[in-house]
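Hi X.,

You mentioned you wanted examples for the new student's onboarding notes, showing what a folding record looks like when two proteins sit in one file. Here is a clean example. The first protein comes first, with its sequence line followed by its structure tokens.
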Amino acid sequence: MKLIIVKNQAEAGKKAFEIFKEELNNGAKVFGLATGSSPISLYNELTNSDLDFSDCTSINLDEYVGLKPTNSQSYHYFMNQHLFSKKPFKKSYVPDGETKDVAQEIAHYNKIIKENPIDLQLLGIGRNGHIAFNEPGTSFDSVTHEVKLSQSTIEANSRFFDNIDEVPKSAICMGIASIMSAKKILLCAFGENKQDALKGMIEGPITEDVPASVLQKHPDVTVICDEIAAKKLK
């Protein structure tokens, strides 16, 4: 596991961009992408660059069940806003949150991942060590699955909606085994609230209680974090 410590998120975006550029130049064709605040500085760098992804495929980690792609809280919308509208890929896959048959969409998404092996997977990390929606206790053997959101997550997300009844109760999420199948993994983490998660991921035991700790088993992981997030690392 390679650790790169930077001063701030803007500098991290530049470092992450260099990794994306190198992988693209070395023939990478399939990129696993993430949502949230952590990748935004990278996406800004990508959209302002002359890199060409028009012959590449992207596969996103997750999507809320029940949200249309046009809903401003959907991950489809996020990706279009921050990347796809300015830097299109040949094909971009995000789980279908509108599906009437979640089990069928899960099978379909697993097939997509199998047919398009991921060259570079981008990740963030949750404060409890989760990766994507894979919360503590998720099996390391998991593939794409439906995750029931905890009541605390639903309540936290309710600030983005008119009322709590509109908040999605579950999400379709790429599993840990699917993430680990990527040839190379790049994880970004920033801020004080990621200190314990980073320490558990890098220096703690490999345990399903800290899902990201499984990355210790992967042959090619790069972690980019700011000085604050790295503070508890030995």
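Then the second protein repeats the pattern, sequence line and then tokens:
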Amino acid sequence: MKLVIATKSREKVTEIRSAIDPALRRFQKDIEIVPLFDMPPVLSPEETGHTFAENAKIKGLYYADKLKALCIADDSGLSVEALRGKPGVYSARFAGVNATDEQNIALLQEQLLEHPRPWRALFVCVAVAALPGGRVVAQATGAVQGEILSAPRGSAGFGYDPVFFVTSHGKTMAELSLEEKNRVSHRGAAMRSLVAEMKNIGILPT
């Protein structure tokens, strides 16, 4: 069986593989985990959803249809309390379609300056598994609570990780090792739950 990690983000692929490998390691002879960039090239779908779940389904169904394979996809982002949930589904393009992580963070902090601290936030991830023929066979959600800092800390991770302070661990996401991050992160939680659901319904072996 081929299981495609349907994202063009190499950072996401690394995190997703790290999250799902322990659950699937003993089935490595039966399940080939393949990143999207090792598959035939496919254009990216337009993410027109208004929620993380809608966008995750758009991506999962699109790539499953194009590649004729079981695909897992996710949509994730930051929901800041003071900004009434923004940047939300626009997290990756908060400062513009081709914005860098640094530009997105700068705009976020600029908008937060008029609000009192602490700047409470949630990192949210919705993950789906899809099969060709328009079938979403599993869906899972993960979230982690934290606060936005006024200055970045740490050199690991990507996106908003350097300014997302995980209060339960006393570190930003960018200060955590990959193993620590997957234990606490929204994406790690979503992916572990997704694999468990796929096993529960018989898509993956148990």
